[in-house]
Amino acid sequence: MTTNLLELEDVTASYGHVQVLYGVSLGLEDGGAVGILGANGAGKTTTLRAISGMVGTGGKITFDGESLVGKRPDQVAQLGIAHVPEGRGTLGHLTVKENLLVGAYQRKNRAEIAADIDYCLDLFPNLAMRISGSAAGLSGGEQQMLAVARGIMARPRLLLLDEASLGLAPSTTRELYDAVARLRQEWSLSMLVVEQNANLAFSLVDSATVLETGRSVLSGPKDELMGRDDIRRAYLGS
Ligand code: ATP
């Protein structure tokens, strides 16, 4: 019997006939945050897609004891997993507020939805100033903030965050990660974080797993990983 909220064991994944994951394993405790590190093409994004049901998978993926293998993305979302994809995926033709409401589409309680919109606007004050503007008019950083805010409007138990810092200025990245850290604390939100910038990932997570060509090769608490010369050289720029 597992105590982890999310458990991946020997997960495989393929795009059509092209297999890209060969054995990914990781565990995430309820309220915990785990980073996924690895070089370009190692399979980090595909691991998140495997959890979300966006790619054909094998092996074992369980969330709160329930298997996710074979589930569609909407079924995975319904179980309480929000995926903030690389490239953000905000809906440019809708306003900021409409994007937030899209995130809450499975919820019914209007008062709670309104309270969570207020929370998101407190978390990301830039969005408050642009609440009625189109998402297409936002800066890259604001679009990433909106993508995270839209994800949490579903009141998920688990957030999958993919390369949130990509293309953002350092100050915007810091603002975004501070907000995500606040979410972790205030909502006890569990998270799986894919991030090229390992220093940034380590500022948020408790532990991490390293992928190489579609396989987990190393996992451990962040202090242990940060103390290793090979990890520092490969991912921390020292
Ligand atoms: P990056 O940091 O570059 O995004 P990653 O570790 O997230 O890398 P993935 O995006 O998961 O890696 O890609 C893993 C492998 O799968 C790569 O070889 C990539 O070329 C391949 N791949 C990704 N998406 C597809 C797709 N839609 N169809 C076929 N192959 C794909």
From TrEMBL:
Family matches, as SUPFAM superfamilies: P-loop containing nucleoside triphosphate hydrolases
Entry keyword set: Amino-acid transport, ATP-binding, Nucleotide-binding, Transport
Gene3D superfamilies: P-loop containing nucleotide triphosphate hydrolases
GO molecular function: ATP binding
All residue ranges annotated as the ABC transporter domain in the record: 6-238
Entries under InterPro entries matching the protein: AAA+_ATPase, ABC_transporter-like_ATP-bd, ABC_transporter-like_CS, BCAA_Transport_ATP-bd_LivF, P-loop_NTPase
Domain of life: Bacteria
Pfam family, one: ABC_tran
PROSITE patterns noted in UniProt: ABC_TRANSPORTER_1 (PS00211), ABC_TRANSPORTER_2 (PS50893)
PANTHER family named among the record's database cross-references: HIGH-AFFINITY BRANCHED-CHAIN AMINO ACID TRANSPORT ATP-BINDING PROTEIN LIVF
Family classification: Belongs to the ABC transporter superfamily.
Descriptive protein name: ABC transporter ATP-binding protein
Organism field: Georgenia halophila
